[in-house]
Specification:
Keywords: Ligase. This is 2,3-dihydroxybenzoate-AMP ligase. Pfam families: AMP-binding, AMP-binding_C. GO terms for molecular function: acid-thiol ligase activity. It comes from Micromonospora marina. The structure is a single chain. α2 crosses α4 and α12 runs parallel beside α13. The chain is globular and about 65 Å long. It is 32% helix and 27% strand. It starts with a strand and ends with a helix. Strands 4-3-15-14-16-17-18-19-20 form a nine-stranded mixed beta sheet, with helices on both faces. A five-stranded parallel beta sheet has the order 6-5-7-10-11, with helices on both faces. With 539 residues, the chain is of the alpha/beta class. It has 18 helices and 29 strands. It folds into three domains: 147 residues, Rossmann fold, CATH 3.40.50; 227 residues, 3-Layer(aba) Sandwich (Rossmann fold); 95 residues, 2-Layer Sandwich (GMP Synthetase, Chain A, domain 3), CATH 3.30.300.30.
Length: 539
C-alpha cells in the first residue's frame, strides 16, 4: 500500500518506514523545528537584511505572531498560497508562518509575470497571493488585481509594501504587527504533509508543481548542511532568489538555520553588493549560478573588499565550465563546491576531501547513502561507468510524482518509482557525476529553465507567424541562449517586436528569444516532429 494523497503520489508505505527507521525522516514539521532552534540558539543572530537583525527567538516569535494573523485572515491547513517575494527578511518570516499553519507556500520567482503566476494559481487552486508592491520597476499590485479578477478562488491578496488603495488588499506589514488571539482549534500539520510546492522546468507546455513534505525537505537541507560542515559560526549569503530550491535547501537558508548559523540577505545579485556584504558580515558560504562567476572574477580584480572570511563558494543550477572552475580557488581565495540537483529531489555535491580535479570537472555525488541512481540508455538498460546515459533516481527526498499531474507522472516516472530527470550524465567509478546535457525539450539559460513548448505556444500567436520552434544556442557565459526559428507569412518580426509581444502576454523576460531566425518550412523528423537538431545546425 502506498502513502498517497488525492493530488500527488507519495512513497510506498514500506519505503517510507525504512526512511524513518534510517533516520532520514525525523517526524518534525518546520514549525516544530523553528521552535526547537529558537530554544537552542535563542539569542544568536538568525537573519540579517540591511539594518534588520533577527535572533532565532525573534524569528520564531515573529513567525508565530504572523501565523496567528494569517489564521485570523482565513487561511487554514492545506490551503495553497502563491508567494512571489524578492529577497528580503519578510520572505523567511512569511514562509515559516505559513508552514507552521500547514498552509502550503507555492514558490513563484520574482521575475514571473501574469502567464506564469496565473498558471501557478490555477494549478494549485491557490486561495491567496503574496507579492511586493513594486519590484524591478514592475507593479505587482496591478498583477494581483488582474489575477484576482481572473480566479474567483483567489480570496486574499497580501502586499509587502504599500497597498496603493487597492480594495481588499491586505498589508503584510500590518499583519506582522497584528496581535491576534491564540488559535482556538489548532489543526497543525504533520511531518508527512506537503510543506511547499516548488516549480519545475518541464516539457509539457506549462511548469509542473513539485510537492515536498516536511520530512523529505528537512532531510535534503540537513544532509547538505552536514557535507558543507556548517555550524553556529556559518554565515550564508543569499544571492540567488530565495524561493529557488538551491537557495532554500542545498543547504541554503534551511540548512544554515538548522546548524545555528546566520542568513544574510542580498537584495540584488550584483558582485558589488555581494562583496560589500561578505566584508561587513564576515560571510563564510554563498551560492551562485555560472553566469555570476565571471562577474565575480572580474569584480575581484577591481575591488579591495576583504573576502578573507569566505570559505566555500557553491556553484550550481547549470553546468560550470572546467576553465572557470579552476580559477575560483586562486582568484577568489575560497574552496569551490560544485552542485548538481533538481527541485524534484536528488542533490549532488563535491566534498572537501575531493581532489581539485574532481571538484573542477564533476558536479559531485549524491548526498544520501539511500539515494538510488541509474544511468541508462534509450532502451532503459544501465550503461557502464564512464558512458553517457539518462539519469534516473529515487530516494528519501526525491518525489514520486508531481502535484495534480497524473498524465505527466505516467511518463516522468518509472513504474518502480524512479524519476526520469532528462539529464544526460556520465558516472565515474567514484560515484561522481559529470553533466553532459539534456534530453528534454528545455533550455537552461544560466540556471533559468525555459520550457520550449510553452514559449512556442506564445510565439505561434504572433500575427503572421505560421510555425515556431525555440532552441538553445550554446553560450559561453549562460550555457544556452534561447533562439526562435519562425515560419512567417510576410516580413518576419524583430527581436524587439517579439519581446514586446511576449511582455504584453505576461511572459517572463528570461524566456524571450535573444535571436530570431526564419526558415521557409520547419525541418521534420521521420515521424513528423520538428527536427530541432537540424535547426541547431543552422545556428
Amino acid at each position: 500500500m502506498s502513502q498517497v494523497t488525492v493530488d500527488w503520489p507519495g512513497w510506498p508505505a514500506e519505503i517510507a518506514e525504512s526512511y524513518r527507521a534510517a533516520g532520514w525522516w525525523r517526524g518534525e514539521t518546520f514549525g516544530q523545528q523553528l521552535s526547537g532552534w529558537a530554544e537552542h540558539f535563542g539569542p544568536r543572530t538568525a537573519l540579517i537584511d540591511g539594518e534588520v537583525r533577527m535572533t532565532y527567538a525573534e524569528l520564531d516569535a515573529t513567525a508565530h505572531r504572523l501565523s496567528r494573523a494569517l489564521h485570523k485572515l482565513g487561511l487554514r491547513r492545506g490551503d495553497r498560497v502563491v508567494v512571489q517575494l524578492p529577497n528580503r527578511a519578510e520572505f523567511v518570516v512569511l514562509w515559516f508562518a505559513l508552514v507552521r499553519l500547514g498552509v502550503v507556500p507555492v514558490h513563484a520567482m520574482p521575475g514571473h509575470r501574469r502567464s506564469e503566476v496565473g498558471h501557478l494559481i490555477a494549478q494549485s487552486h491557490a486561495v491567496a497571493y503574496v507579492g511586493p508592491d513594486r519590484h524591478a520597476r514592475f507593479d505587482h499590485r496591478q498583477l494581483a488585481a488582474e489575477l484576482q479578477a481572473t480566479f474567483p478562488h483567489l480570496a486574499y491578496v497580501v502586499i509587502d509594501g504599500e497597498t496603493g488603495g487597492w480594495d481588499g488588499f491586505r498589508s503584510l506589514r500590518e499583519l506582522l504587527q497584528t496581535e491576534a488571539a491564540p488559535i482556538d482549534h489548532p489543526d497543525p500539520p504533520t511531518a508527512s504533509d506537503m510543506a511547499l510546492l516548488l516549480l519545475s522546468g518541464g516539457t509539457t507546455g506549462t511548469p509542473k508543481l513539485i510537492p515536498r513534505t516536511h520530512d523529505d525537505y528537512a532531510c535534503n537541507a540537513r544532509l547538505a548542511a552536514e557535507i558543507c560542515e556548517l555550524g553556529p559560526g556559518s554565515v550564508y549569503l543569499a544571492v540567488l532568489p530565495m524561493p529557488f530550491n538551491f537557495t532554500m535547501s542545498c543547504p541554503g537558508i534551511l540548512g544554515v538555520l538548522q546548524a545555528g548559523g546566520t542568513v544574510v540577505v542580498a537584495r540584488d545579485p550584483s558582485p558589488t553588493t555581494a562583496f560589500r556584504l561578505i566584508e561587513r558580515e564576515r560571510v563564510t558560504i554563498t551560492a551562485l549560478n555560472p553566469p555570476l562567476v565571471p562577474l565575480w572574477l572580474q569584480e575581484r580584480t577591481e575591488s579591495a573588499a576583504d573576502l578573507s572570511s569566505l570559505e566555500l563558494l557553491q556553484v550550481g543550477a547549470a553546468r560550470l565550465s572546467d576553465d572557470l572552475a579552476r580559477r575560483i580557488r586562486p582568484e577568489l581565495g575560497c574552496r569551490l563546491q560544485q552542485v548538481f540537483g533538481m527541485a524534484e529531489g536528488l542533490l549532488n555535491l563535491t566534498r572537501s576531501e575531493d581532489s581539485e580535479e574532481l571538484v573542477c570537472t564533476t558536479q559531485g555525488r549524491p548526498i544520501c547513502p539511500d539515494d538510488e541512481v541509474l544511468v541508462v540508455d534509450e532502451a532503459g538498460a544501465e550503461v557502464p561507468a564512464g558512458e553517457v546515459g539518462e539519469l534516473l533516481t529515487r530516494g528519501p527526498y526525491t518525489i514520486r510524482g508531481y502535484y495534480r499531474a497524473e498524465e505527466v507522472n505516467r511518463t516522468g516516472f518509472t513504474p518502480d518509482g524512479y524519476y526520469r530527470t532528462g539529464d544526460q550524465v556520465r558516472r565515474l567509478p567514484s560515484g561522481h557525476l559529470s553533466v553532459v546535457g539534456r534530453i528534454k525539450d528545455q533550455i537552461n539559460r544560466g540556471g533559468e529553465k525555459i520550457d520550449a513548448t510553452e514559449v512556442e505556444g506564445h510565439l505561434a500567436a504572433y500575427p503572421g507567424v505560421l510555425a515556431a520552434a525555440l532552441v538553445g544556442a550554446p553560450d559561453r557565459d549562460l550555457g544556452e541562449r534561447p533562439v526562435a526559428f519562425l515560419v512567417c507569412a510576410g516580413e518576419p518580426p524583430t527581436v524587439r517586436a517579439i519581446g514586446a509581444f511576449l511582455r504584453d502576454r505576461g511572459v517572463a523576460a528570461y524566456k524571450h528569444p535573444d535571436r530570431i531566425g526564419t526558415v521557409p518550412a520547419m525541418p521534420l523528423t521521420a515521424v513528423g516532429k520538428i527536427d530541432k537538431r537540424a535547426l541547431v545546425g543552422l545556428l
